[in-house]
## 1
Amino acid sequence: MYRLAQLSGVKIVACTGFHLRKYYPRFAWLWQLDSQKACDFFVKELKVGLAETLDQEGEIIKAGFIKVAFEDSLKKTPPESLEGAIHASLETSVAIEAHTEKGVNVEAIVDYFGTQGIPFDRLVICHIDKRPDFGLHRSIAQAGILLEYDTFYRPKYDLQKNLWPLLSQMIEVGFGSSICLATDMAESALWARYGGNPGLNGYLNQIKPD
């Protein structure tokens, strides 16, 4: 990521935090931490450097925000890791990006962050375009939260019926600056380096023209 930023001139922001449990070994060290130790780890990655770069020679890279992942219910989301991430955000004033399972429980997620004292202008909700409810999106944007749309490469979500009209509506009512465009290239079939399509260039030649 550092080399790519240097060569391209594009500013890339790395994150600390945690993803869904299924992406880790069952007894991963992260799930063994209490909330304070999780907070300490996230803060270290934000203020000192990412563990990957501290353990090797070369440039030390600091994280610039925290990502957390909500399971399909709040109760299944690791509470210690989530609390640690919230405390780290409050201590460092960095943003939190929240993974949602296709926008499920987003109302409860927003309420939860509000009760924890996270300013809404420091919050990003991911994959929310998979739930193309204009009224919901407008209310979230009105609260000052950034919405991340990322199904541009996923025909199965019927983009012409859902994503593009939703994006147009949000822009028409003045919330274009409340939307973050992304790609969510979680499948190898989307990467040119693995023989897939459209690759990273799709952001420019597929999303931007439309």
Note: The chain has one domain: 13-207.
## 2
Amino acid sequence: MNVGQPIRSLCEELATTYNVVVLEGCDGVGKTTVADHLAAHHGFQVVHSSRSPDNVDLVQRHRAIITTPGRLALDRSYISELVYGPVLHSGSRLAWSGALELTALAAQQGGVLVHLTAEPRCIHDRLRTRQDGDAWELSLIERIQQQYDLVFAQLDPYISVRRHRTDSTA
């Protein structure tokens, strides 16, 4: 895998400090790239969490993931529900009490939340390349990023939050 120095440096810091790395950010921002690098070079197990069916208990599902033995890199997590739920669906299926419980659990496991971000145009271009020319409008990408900012601001008092720009790692 060919990643830029900023990603290698981020991964080195994360690997020497944390046991659970929760990677979050808008689609196309580089979560999978970071997760794959952590797995290949630092022995992390990668768990990708796509949107769960409506009848799944999200707290129970993510509690089981976060407490998996070993070093974990979560490529998307319960935090996505707090972002994409309100922006793309009728609202979040996860209550804040559940999100705070999961955040506290991640902190107890030696975890960190990593907020990956990039300029909306960069994200748009990555999505267009990755999805055969189809990508979200810039205004939707901006709304998603604003929601991530709000969610991370609310979780910051409960766990270490790292923000990292991925613009230069395309």
Note: The first helix runs from residue 5 to 17.
## 3
Amino acid sequence: MGIQVCPKCGASNRVDETAAQLRQPVCGKCGAKLSEAIFDKPQYVTDETFGNEVLEASNSVPVLVDCWADWCSPCRAIAPMLDQLAAESGGRYKIAKLNIDENRQVPAQFSIRSIPTLLIFKNGELVDSIVGVVPKQTIAARLASI
């Protein structure tokens, strides 16, 4: 289950990825249509949803997890690149965002010491990580090599 932010009212909505493939998800607050494609924007994950959304992903697409915080300038700098990569993904990979200030278990589990840290998972396994701000092409190349 992913979290999608409504483009109209900004409300956070839980969206079941499987159900979203069968019918158009709508915002629970204002009724506006949510994103057509589940992977076209980064999905927010939490300590509670990390297992289902990242480790137990039903398909074998790579999942890039952006470990970030609101106060982090480099995190804000890399965010537009991740938005672009998500829009360009075409379902080849999924991008997720994990706020480390609101979620402490996952960062501790993967020894996150610096942000932004990008963790890349495939079939529930951590296969690569990138620390710091790097060019969009570098991130895309790492995802393509997985």
Note: The chain has a mean pLDDT of 87.
